[in-house]
């Protein structure tokens, strides 16, 4: 029987996190982002960035978690990253104070497609919520691609709603629409749905 759990990322996880990110993007975003952009992503570059994020976070409130599936062997199957909301969480033209204090931003929430629908996304999000609560955050925000139905379904199932903000990322001269969702961080644990898995937040 397979068991799943979540733990803080370690420095030696960086390469596997990068592999999961690349594999997931190439499947989940193949109809959203240009093919040549996905094909030219540098796994080594991503690994170096994740190593820095894990080993040298900007603050103690910046978190990187990994999801592990444990059977005969243990496999890293997903990851999540979050930190205090900064300029990257803002919509174009939105003033710096628009989000207010006590807001945390999810920058990544990915589960490799072949390990989907096994509760890993829900466990990652639940673990993040516990940390956010301990850090004193009151609200969370996350951007996702407008065409990313899997992430939209997952976030909606766990109580996230659009907050009215939108933007378009310029990906090699292609404008890709994104929507921002938000959720109040509950004072107590609440169960999250395990029926769907995210591809990106």
Automatic annotation (TrEMBL):
Keyword Metal-binding: no
Xref: SUPFAM superfamilies: Acyl-CoA N-acyltransferases (Nat)
Pfam families, per the entry: Acetyltransf_1
UniProt cross-references to InterPro entries, sorted A to Z: Acyl_CoA_acyltransferase, Bact_Acetyltransf, GNAT_dom
Chain ranges of the N-acetyltransferase domain: 4-181
A GO MF term: acyltransferase activity, transferring groups other than amino-acyl groups
UniProt entry keywords in alphabetical sequence: Acyltransferase, Transferase
Protein name: Acetyltransferase (GNAT) family protein
């Amino acid at each position: 029987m397979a068991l799943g759990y979540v733990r803080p990322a370690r420095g030696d996880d960086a390469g596997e996190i990068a592999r999961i990110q690349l594999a997931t993007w190439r499947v989940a975003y193949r109809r959203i982002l240009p093919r040549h952009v996905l094909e030219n992503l540098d796994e080594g570059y991503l690994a170096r960035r994740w190593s820095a994020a894990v080993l040298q976070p900007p603050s103690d409130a910046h978190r990187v978690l990994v999801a592990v599936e444990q059977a005969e062997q243990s496999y890293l199957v997903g990851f999540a990253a979050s930190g205090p909301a900064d300029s990257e969480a803002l919509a174009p033209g939105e003033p710096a104070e628009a989000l207010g204090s006590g807001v945390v931003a999810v920058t990544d929430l990915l589960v490799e497609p072949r390990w989907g629908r096994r509760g890993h996304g829900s466990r990652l999000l639940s673990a993040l919520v516990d940390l956010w609560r301990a850090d004193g955050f009151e609200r969370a925000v996350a951007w996702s691609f407008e065409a990313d139905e899997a992430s939209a379904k997952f976030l909606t199932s766990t109580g996230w709603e659009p907050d009215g903000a939108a933007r378009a990322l310029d990906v090699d001269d292609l404008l890709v629409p994104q929507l921002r969702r938000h959720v109040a961080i509950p004072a107590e644990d609440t169960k999250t749905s395990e029926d769907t898995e995210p591809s990106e937040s």
